[in-house]
Amino acid sequence: METNKKTIIRESLRNTYKVTMKGKTNSGGIIIKETSIQLELMTPSNGLGMTRFSIIFEFEDSRSISVYGNYLSKIVVPRIYSGGKVVIHCFTEEFDEEEHSKLLSKARANDVKNIIRNGLTKAGKCDVLLEEQGFDEFSGYSLFEDDISEQDFYNSTVIVDIIPPKLLKAAN
Fold first, then answer.
1. Which SS3 state, helix, strand or coil, does residue 113 take?
2. What SS3 class is residue 121?
3. Closest by alpha carbon to 134, among 106, 158, 107, 157?
4. Span between the terminal Cα atoms of the chain, in Å
5. How wide is the angle at C-alpha 71 spanned by C-alphas 62 and 76, nearest 5°?
6. Quick one: how many helices (H) and strands (E) in the chain?
7. Which of 6-20, 91-105, 128-142, 152-166 has the lowest mean pLDDT?
8. Is 48 helix (H, G, I), strand (E, B) or coil?
9. Quick check: helix, strand or coil at residue 66?
10. Whole-prediction pTM value?
11. pLDDT digits (tens, 9 = 90+) for 136-170
């Protein structure tokens, strides 16, 4: 049965709904929870604008959190345009040694780049430019100050910018 995307959303592009979830515990009991969610109808990109995604890494680890491999392959790669460009901005948390920060930043960028490159190859998009940029607190480009551990956690981030060919041509 095919469902019209506007059935739930109706005429508005965004609405808030009350959702009731019903589950069964291991012991056979029933749990009912209610919450509000907001649904928004997303329209496909016309390819004129840049798209940005971000990925968080484990502290002091050069491999992305496992769920992000699928995220990159199944969500990000399909949005990359043939003839476009992907810029991978890699940030690291605060370390005492500048060399360690630089190596970790490069390793994270390479992890993301390899996942994206493999996905692009499988999709037959071999004309995409891949560029990576590494940043750390020594370069002065940390996303957050490292005053508290939560800020340090968010500095363990890679941002992926997808630039469509039309935007590249307009910039040249």
1. helix
2. helix
3. 106
4. 47
5. 105
6. 5, 6
7. 6-20
8. coil
9. coil
10. 0.63
11. 665 555 555 555 555 555 667 888 999 999 888 77
The answer to whether 105 touches 134, Cβ cutoff 8 Å, is: yes
Cβ distance 56 to 159 under 8 Å? no
Distance CA 71, CA 51 (A): 15
Classify residue 56 by burial, with Cβ atoms within 10 Å: 0-12, 13-18, 19+: middle
Structure tokens at 78: 């399909």
Give CA–CA dist 131/161, Å, rounded. 10
User: Of 170, 163, 171, 149, which is closest to residue 50 (Cα–Cα)?
Assistant: 163
Domains, the chain, with CATH or none: 6-40 (no CATH), 51-171 (3.30.1330.60)
User: Rounded CA gap, 12 and 30, in Å?
Assistant: 35
Q: Which of 42, 65, 154, 155 is nearest to 115 (CA)?
A: 65
Of the candidates 133, 121, 124, 44, the residue with the CA atom closest to the CA atom of residue 86 = 133
**Predicted confidence band at 102 (pLDDT cuts at 50, 70, 90)?**
confident
pLDDT in tens, 52-87: 888 877 665 555 556 778 889 888 999 999 999 999
Q: What is the pLDDT of residues 19-58, one digit of tens each?
A: 787 888 889 999 888 887 766 655 555 545 788 888 877 6
Are the beta carbons of 168 and 85 closer than 8 angstroms? yes
